[in-house]
Amino acid sequence: MAKPQGGYVAKKCPARAQWDTVRPCEPLRDSPFLQRLFTRGREFESGVVAQLLELHPDALVVTQRTEQNGAEREQETLQAMQDGVPLILGGRLPADPVSRRVGEPDLLVAATGGGYRAADVKRHLCLDIDGIPACCSSLDGVAWETADTPASARKRKDDLFQLAHYQRMLEAIGMAAPGARLGAIIGTEKLVTWFDLDAVELSHEPVIDVYDSEFAWRLAIIDIANEHLADPNVELAVGPVRSAECGECPWKDWCRAILEQGSGDVSPVPYMTRKARGIHLDHGTSDRAALAGLDYSTASLVAAKVDLTPIMDALDFEPLDTPLRGVIGKRRYRQLEKLNEAGFFVLGDARKLCPRTAGYPPMGGLPGQIDQAWAVLGDAMVYRRRGVINIEVPRGDVDRCRRRERRGGGLPLGDPGHQRAGLDGIEEGYRPFRQRKGTARTRGRTGPARTGTQARTARTRAGTQRRR
Asked: Domain limits of the chain?
């Protein structure tokens, strides 16, 4: 049985939850970019906590986390909640052995009617123009009861899952606030943005229900992974799938080796979503060779939302000279126009269609996915996109005004790279942009180089002195 898990497991890739248990190889270290994100996130959180302590002197800061003091911090947090401390910072909720949950919310905010609500500090924006309904309170009035500013917030699944995780843990120990299930995120706006976890929907379901399903699925995957470790004959629950998480995943090399076996899985095809991959698998398209074997012309009609099912069915019993208008129905004018544009007028023309491709539901990206799979499996390094005849690459000339190159605070354009010559009779071609050795105004000058602002200030002062 899987050990208790934090809320992050619900939003992880299912394969990552599995590999974290099996550990099939040595995981990759966090990239410098990811380490920088973590560091800045911790610094931002420390700044918010310091500001909250100034505004709420009666707040309690739970003992700092170590590897051995988890049980001690859980007891300290529970005692603070039982004592009714209005604001608890850095707490650790008591572990839930039944539902197998552990969690450490950044804030636990006391509700007026008793109980607590959880909040997390995140170094990103929470508010948006066209977002989901939310309500905001300031840092000096953290509680939901003081949230009197309606707002439009971003719907971040990761944040909402984290809040749902804490909500379930509070309910398990009987310390959840009565009424609506609410949780908050403190973003870079330095506002406490409250979300109703029953009202916000993901995939047309309340976010807390979606979280429950995803968390339970990850636990089942981890349980099977543990069984596999005990008995290698037990098959693992999931296989690797290319997703947006792969770039910073510690198991990406392991998954890539599996995905590239044979002609390769369809998930690495550009713009392939998890839903689209599921549709391909349902139609027997399990690798890139099968995807490349689909018919592009038929896929274009499928992408245009032309229902080819009645046409393919009519091929078995209708005369081949039957107009397509009588097959698909007289009222489907747009579909008929698209069929005519593609060269289909009578039923006999439909013999050119691929039955396997015609069985797909409307998928806007299907033609492009076919071409991408075909290009990967082809012998050439580069292929020209369909419909493109001539490829023109715009070329830039040398910017002879060096001052413009320094605008924006970056390096001079010519220093690290090369510029194209060809002006004023100079021979065409690329060559390094050489630095000037100095002019009469700059030759012999010592000391550090001046920035543009410093140089302008010096010239202004010199002109003022001359006028005097």
From this structure: 8-212, 266-377
